[in-house]
Structure formats: structure tokens, C-alpha cells
Structure prediction request, 153 residues.
Amino acid sequence: MRNYFYLWRDKSKLIDNILPRPKQHRKISTPPIMLGYKPFGIPKSVLESVTLLYDEYESIRLLDYLGMNQEQAAEQMNVSRPTLTRIYEKARKTIAEAFVKGKMILIEGGEVSFDRQWFRCKRCYKLVAGLENHTKCRNCNFFSNDELTPINE
Ligand SMILES: [Zn+2]
Prediction:
């Protein structure tokens, strides 16, 4: 009976060891204001693209734009320092490829979570933080919540 009890008690531990750990979501405070970047001087017919994930974009924003050190950026994104370094290196590599090869950069996806619900207007691409902040803008003749694409998923 005692053994049985122990077995039951340790079940959660057992499951922890067998199942792969769910991937930790990287925390992003603000999504990028644009969908991506396009080089000019490259014919559309031969234009290729690379994908920069949201967490990779965030690493560039925190380290290169805001000038944080890697410890600070890792803490902000809720990841370990080595993980942050990997994310950042991949971001730099992707941007370098786009820059040297004249490719377009699409910014999307990744194992991320935003600190609040974000939307993008389908018409003017304006970023909206939370439905309550969706107000009619100059570019939006039609105005309804249907025009918002959720970014968070
Ligand atoms: Zn709009």
C-alpha cells in the first residue's frame, strides 16, 4: 500500500521527466509597427524573402536599438542568456542575408507571448493595443472590429 502511494505521489514527477518540456514563450512588449521590409532595385519577379521571427526582432530592438546588455534583454524576454544569444545571432544572420542578397524580410511567428492583446488594422496596418483603443483613423473609411487582425496568435 505504501509503495502504491509513493507511485501515485511521484506520478507528476514521472510525467515531467517523460514528456518534453513545453517551450517557454519569449516575452515581447510591442510588436513591430511594420509587416516587414522590402529592398528597392530588385525586380518583383526575382524578389525572395526571409522570415524574422518576433522574438528575433525583439532581440534586435532590445540589444541594438535600446542598447541593453544581453543579461537585461534575456530577463526582459524571460529567456536564459544562452537562449537570448542564439535568438540574437539568428536575427543578425537573417538580416545580413536579406541585406546582402537583396531579399525581403517578413516579420512574423515564433514562440512568443505579448504582454497584452495586439491587433493590426487590415486597411491602414495601424497597430492597435487592445480593442478598446481601436478608434477611427484617417485611412479607415469603414470602421469596425472586423478590420482588425489579432497579432497574438
Ligand atoms: Zn485603419
